C-alpha cells in the first residue's frame, strides 16, 4: 500500500520546485486535484489519521512505561505501575507519558533544530530495539534451543523471516546515520547517531545505578524458567 501511495503521490504532485520549497508537500498534491472540496476532504481524512495515530502511539507508549514499571525498571515504579481496575487503563503511566511528550514538544518553540535532533532518534531507536529482540530469538533458533510456548508460530519459516528482518534492520541503521546532503552544516547534519549514543549511555548508567538492583526481567516469570514459589507480577 505504501508503494501504491508513493507512486500516486509522485505522479500527482506536479512540478518539483514548489514541492521542494514547501514545508507541507502533501498540501500541493491535494490542491492539484483541482477541487477545493476534494482537497478539504483529503485534509480531514489526513487529520483523522494523524489523530488516531497519536492515540495509538500514546496507548502503546504508556503501556510500555507501565510494563517496565511493573518489573521495577524505572524510578517511581510503584506509582507508575498502578492499574485502574475499572477501566483497565494505567492512568499514571498515561499521565507521565503525556507530560514528557508535552515537554519535548515545547522545545520546538525555542529551536526547531533541537527539536529535529531529538525526534531524529526515533528510527534508530526502533531499528536497534528490533535487532535486539529479533536477534535474541534468532540466536536461540540457530542454537536449536526451545522457545517459550506461543499461541502462534511461523514454524520452519521463522528462522528465515527472523534472519531477513535482522539483516534488513542492520542495513537500514547504517543508512540512517548518513547526512541528508553535502556539504554538512550544523543546521542540516544528521544528529541521530549522537543522540542515539547519548541515550544508550544514559540507559547504561541508569541500569548500573538503579536497574540491576530492582529490575526483574520478565523471563523470570516464564513457565519452565520460573523459580519455585515465584508468582506472576501483580499490580495495584
UniProtKB/TrEMBL annotation:
Name of the protein this chain belongs to: Uncharacterized protein
Organism per entry: Coniosporium uncinatum
